[in-house]
Amino acid sequence: MTLRRLLSITLEDAACMYAPDKVVTHWDLATTDSLSEARKAMKAQFFPVGLLLIQTTQDKDLESLHSFLDGHQGSQWVGVFTPDLIQNPRCRAMIAQHLFDFHTWPIDPHRLNHTLGHAFGYADLVDQPHITLGSPREMDLVGQSPAIAHLRTQIRKVAKANAPVLIWGESGSGKELTALAIHQHSTRAKAPFIAVNCGAIPAGLIQSELFGYERGAFTGAAKEKKGLIEAAAKGTLFLDEVGDLPLELQANLLRFLQEGTINRVGASTPIQVDARVIAASHIHLQSAVVAGNFREDLLYRLNVLPLSVPALRERKEDLPLLSQHFFKLFEHDKNPRITGFSHRALQAIKSYDWPGNVRELINRIRRALVMAEGRLITPEDLGLNLSTPLRNGEALEEARIRAERDAINVCLQGSGSNVTRAARDLGVSRMTLYRLMEKHGINA
Ligand SMILES: Nc1ncnc2c1ncn2[C@@H]1O[C@H](COP(=O)(O)OP(=O)(O)O)[C@@H](O)[C@H]1O
Ligand SMILES: [Mg+2]
Fold it and tell me: Are residues 273 and 336 in the same domain?
C-alpha cells in the first residue's frame, strides 16, 4: 500500500490565496514554493500525488513546469489555476498532457480533497504492476534520459513555429513519433496528420498519390482525386524517407514549399494548400546531395528546423522504462503466467546495442511475450543469449562491434540466409541490414 504522501508546489504569488495545509486534510503533506525545491523533495522520496497551486504564470514558467512534469510522470498531478489561465492554449495543453485533474480559484476545499483522494486511489492502482488501466498510449515518447528530455524540449519549441522540420535518426528510433508529437503540440493539432512513406510508394504512383489528379488526367482517372498533400490541409504532412522521393517530384515539392500551391496531375490551375511539412530521413541528405540524388535547394528549404532523434544505444538508461512500457502495451498477447522480466533479461537488454532501435526492442519483447515458457522473460526468450564476456584485453567498443556481428550472424543462420527474415528478426530494415553486413564483411 502506497503512503498518502502529497507534495504541494505553490508558484509565484498563489501563496497569498491559500496555505495548502489549511485546505488539504488527512495527508502527509510536504510544501514547496519553487520547482527546484520540488525537484529536491521528489528526489528524496516518492510522492504518489502532487498539487500545483498557480495564480499567474508567464510562458517561460509554463515551459519550466512542462519539463518538470515530463520528468515526474510517475506521480498523479492536480492543478489549481486562475480561470483566465485556463484559457491560455499552452496551459490547456499542459493540463491535457500531464494532469490527473484541475480546479480553478477560488478553491472549494471539499471538492479539492475529493479530487486528491481520487488521484491517490488512481496512483495506488497504477502502482500495482498486475493491474492495467486500459492500454498505455503508444503515441507518447517514453523515456526520462537527458537525450529524450532534450528532444521533448525541442519538439515543444518547433511545434510553435510553422516552418518545415527535418528529422534525422536511425531506423526505428522514433522519427515518426517525434513528427506526430510536433503536430500534437502545434496549433494544427485538431487538423489531420498525414504520414507518407516516400520509399514505400511505387515511383509511378507517387505523384498522383501526393498531388492528386483531375478527371481524365490519364486512362482510368474517371473521377478527380485529392492527393495526400490536400488531405493534410490545415494540418501536417509527414514525409518519411524523403530522400527516396524521385528527382522530378522533388521539384514539385520544392514549389509547394516555396509558393504553398500544388498542381494536381492534369490540372492547369494551381491550388493553394496550407499544410506544414515535416520530413524525415535515416540517411544524411547532405551526402545524397553530393551524390546527385537530392536537390540542394530542397534540402535548404526542408532543413529550416533540424531535429535529430538519438539512437537507443545513446540513451540506455531508458531501456528498463521502455521495456516495461512495451510489456504493458502488448500484454494482451501474452501468456497470463508471465509476470515480468528476469534480472538476467534486464541485464541482457542493457548490454545489447539495439541496432534496430526502439522498433527492434518492440519486436523482441512481443516475441518473448508469446514464446516465453517460464514466469519471467529470459534473455533466451528475447534472443539475447549471445554471451559476450570481454575477451582478454578487449576494449568495450570491440566487444560491442563483436556483439553486433554475432547477432547478425545468428539471425542470418536462423533464417537460412534470408536477409528479409533476418532483418525482421533484428528489427531493422533490409537496407540497414545490408549496410551492417557490409560494415562487418558478412555475405548472406
Ligand atoms: N520513445 C519512445 N517511446 C515509446 N515508443 C516509441 C519511442 N520511440 C519509438 N517508439 C515506437 O517504436 C516504433 C518505431 O518508431 P518510429 O517513430 O516509427 O521510428 P522511425 O520513424 O524512426 O523508423 C513505433 O512503434 C513507435 O511507436
Ligand atoms: Mg519511420
Answer: no
Tally the domains of the chain.
3
Q: How do residues 364-399 score in pLDDT, each as one tens digit?
A: 999 999 889 889 999 999 999 755 556 666 677 777
pLDDT for position 304: 94
Residue 136 belongs to a domain: no
Number of the ligand 1 atom closest to the C-alpha atom of 309? 22
**CATH number, domain with residue 166:** 3.40.50.300
* Ligand 2 geometric centre to CA of 317 (Å): 23
Whichever domain contains 433, its CATH number is 1.10.8.60
Residue nearest to atom 2 of ligand 1 (CA): 141
Pocket of ligand 1 (CB under 6 A): 138, 141-143, 169, 171-177, 358-359, 362
Span 230-237, average pLDDT = 95
Pocket-testing residue among 152, 166, 359, 426, ligand 1, by greatest number of atoms within 8 A of Cβ: 359
5 CA from centroid of ligand 2 (Å) = 42
Let me know if residue 139 belongs to a domain: no
pLDDT digits (tens, 9 = 90+) for 395-433: 777 778 888 888 898 888 778 888 988 888 788 888 899
Statement to judge: residues 295 and 267 lie in one domain: yes
Domain span at residue 90 reads: 5-126
The alpha carbon of 281 and the centre of ligand 2 are apart by a number of angstroms equal to: 8
- Sorting pLDDT into bands at 50, 70 and 90, what band is 129? very low
Question: Does 300 fall in a domain?
Answer: yes
On whether the CB atoms of residues 345 and 381 are closer than 8 A, the answer is: yes
**Mean pLDDT over all residues of the chain?**
87
Cα 358 to ligand 2 centroid, rounded to whole Å? 11
7 phi and psi angles, rounded to 5 deg: -105, 125
